[in-house]
Structure formats: structure tokens, C-alpha cells
Amino acid sequence: MTGRPIIMNKSTWQSIRAVVAGVLAILNVTTLVGIVLHIAKVYPPAKEPLTDALASSYRLIISIAGGYLTARLAPERPLRHAMILGYVGVVLGMVGLVATWNLRLGPGWYPISLVVLAIPQCWAGGKLYELRLPARTAGETA
């Protein structure tokens, strides 16, 4: 490989940290909620497949919050960082979809929904964060 070396400045590290924080927050909180719902017997025992949309409902909220967190931690262009989080979610969702497709862990639509909804959920979180920012003056550029 030739060319200029990749320089990792403070802003680059903050960007990476923002996206990684969003990924870890989404993974940890959804896992924790799933465990609590199993303990509370809202979900069936671990060996039985899920049959309802409850998991999609709380994942939707948690993923939007993850997009918001990523945007909040981004050093600049918060919506762009939230979208990168969404792209990471698509990749991770595809890995999960392929790995579990024939295992009958639940309804077939569920892992597909994780892939399809990753970007819109993270966009919504980033947009919610941007709506809280002060309005730009007419002379500023995006």
C-alpha cells in the first residue's frame, strides 16, 4: 500500500469512540432487557422461540437512543455519525441473520427487521439530537 499514512487525530478518535459507544450501548441494553424479560417470564424459556413483536418494540426504542448517543458524542456532523452507526447495525444484523437463519430461534421476519430498520432507527436518533441543537444562523453552512 502506498500513499499517505492514515493520521489518527483527536477528532478521528472521538468519532470512533462515538460510534463504538452507540454499538456497545445498543448491544448491552438490548441484552439486559432480554435477560430481564426472561427472568420476569414475559418471554418463554430460552430454548423456546419468541413469537411476538415485543423484542422489536424495545429494540426500536433502544436503537433510536443509541443513534442519539452517538450523535451526542460526535465531535462534528452528529447525523453522519448516527448514520455510520446504522451502517454498522446493518452489517451486524446481516451477520446475525446469516448465522441464525435455519435455527428457528423465532419468527423469520425478526432478524430481517433488524437489518432493515438499523439505518432508519439510527437516523431518527441522530435527527432527534440535531433538533435539540440551536438553530443555525443564515450565514453558517452545513
Structural description of this entry:
The chain has 142 residues and is mainly alpha-helical. It has one domain. The chain has helices at residues 10-39, 54-73, 78-100, 109-132. Helix 1 packs antiparallel against helix 2, helix 2 runs antiparallel to helix 3 and helix 2 packs parallel to helix 4. The model is unreliable at 137-142 (pLDDT under 50).
Describe the secondary structure blueprint for this structure.
Elements: H1 10-39, H2 54-73, H3 78-100, H4 109-132
| Fraction of helical residues | 55-70%
Number of helices: 4
Q: If you compute it from the alpha carbons, what radius of gyration comes out, rounded to the nearest whole angstrom?
A: 18 Å
Give the number of DSSP strands: 0
Low-confidence stretches: 137-142
Largest pleated sheet? none
Give me some keywords for this one.
142 residues; mainly alpha; disordered C terminus
Q: In a nutshell, what does this entry contain?
A:
With 142 residues, the chain is mainly alpha-helical. The protein is 68% helix and 0% strand.
